[in-house]
Amino acid sequence: MKIKIISGFLGAGKTTCVKNVLKTAGSDMAVIINEFGDIGIDAELVSRGDIVDMVELPSGCICCTLANDLVSAVKEIKTKYNPSRLVIEPSGLAVPSGILEALEPIKEEFELEFEGIIGIIDADSFLANVHSGLFGDFYTDQLANSDIILINKADLVKENTIRAIEEELRKYNNHAILINTVNCETDLPELLRDHGSDYLHLHFDHDFDSLALTTDREYEPDLMREVLQEIKEGKYGTIYRAKGIYRTTGGKFEKLDYVQGNFDFEEFPECQGSKIIFIGKDFDRAALEERLSG
Asked: How does DSSP classify residue 203?
């Protein structure tokens, strides 16, 4: 069973990339999706219209606190379904080395082959994030262990910014294939990792926090737009990522997507209730929850 790891920071485009892979892969594929917060949203976005065996591991990080759960999930998928390929989408706060380390002990027994690791970066925020120093070894691990790096959202920046991004990436990784993408659309090269168990593994502690809301209530579309604008302005503290599916007062559903100041909405098919998650550092969870309950 070949394993494809698709990693990237919060909002870089991992779920979009997974959906693109599924479009051309047929049905002989399984997917493991891991999210940082207490509710899972990405699995619902991926599964719409796709026939695929899927395991969701929310509320934790598969490269550390959920490592045992990851191993159990991979064993079950191999034994029960035995697909030709397994795609693993870790949370935006996970690193590839943790996944490789967790699965190494069962690699031979369960005949696992690791494909080239795909790392995705957001061209619009990457340089600011790296130069801020806030994420330290997180970026080092994620980028150094990638075999293919998608410079996603390339349409949002100028050519000189792309060149600066490429120069920055080469400080971390000299061997990776760099591909500029929009919506992660590209023909991904087929390659297996030839590094064996040789990979960079850096231990780091993150202090990210999340607020997860699940409810049957309806939300005014204008309210959500106002709240995301307030988040952009820093009213509740530092929030890097928000995503969700919620019922509007018109009886329809909308999907919201917020990434470091950029946000958009789109209609979404009917689903069970509203699910929204916010991820950041030391933000005012109580004030935000009160704002959304008013």
From this structure: -
What DSSP element (H or E) covers 30?
strand 29-34
- Residue 19, C-beta contacts closer than 8 angstroms, at least 6 positions apart: 45, 46, 50
- Domain match, 173 and 224 both: no
Q: Is the pTM for the entire model greater than 0.85?
A: no
* Residue 161, helix vs strand vs coil: helix
Question: Which domain does 271 fall in, by range?
Answer: 209-293
Q: Do 23 and 164 belong to one domain?
A: yes
Give the number of domains in the chain: 2
* Structure-token match 């990851």, residue found: 70
Mark whether 150 and 8 lie in a shared domain: yes
Cα-Cα-Cα-Cα dihedral sign, residues 28, 143, 154, 238: positive
Please check whether residues 13 and 158 belong to one and the same domain. Answer: yes
CATH number at residue 217: 3.30.1220.10
Q: pLDDT tens digit string along 189-204?
A: 888 776 544 555 544 4
Domain boundary among 180, 196, 217: 180
Q: What is the dihedral of CA 31, 93, 39, 291, to 10 degrees?
A: -150
Report the half-sphere exposure of 180 (CA within 13 A, side-chain side). Answer: 14
Q: Which pair of tokens denotes residue 208?
A: 């990210």
For the ranges 56-60, 147-151, 217-221, 237-241, which has the lowest average pLDDT?
Answer: 56-60
Residues 172 and 259 in one domain: no
**Of 193, 163, 192, nearest to 178 (Cα)?**
163
Please tell me the distance from the alpha carbon of residue 35 to that of residue 42, in angstroms, as a whole number. 8
Instruction: Please work out, in degrees rounded to the nearest 5, the angle formed at the alpha carbon of residue 133 by the alpha carbons of 129 and 139.
Output: 65
Other residues' Cβ atoms within 10 Å of the Cβ of residue 44: 18
Give me the helix-helix angle, 96-103 and 137-144, nearest 10°: 60
Instruction: Say if residue 106 is in the same domain as residue 25.
Output: yes
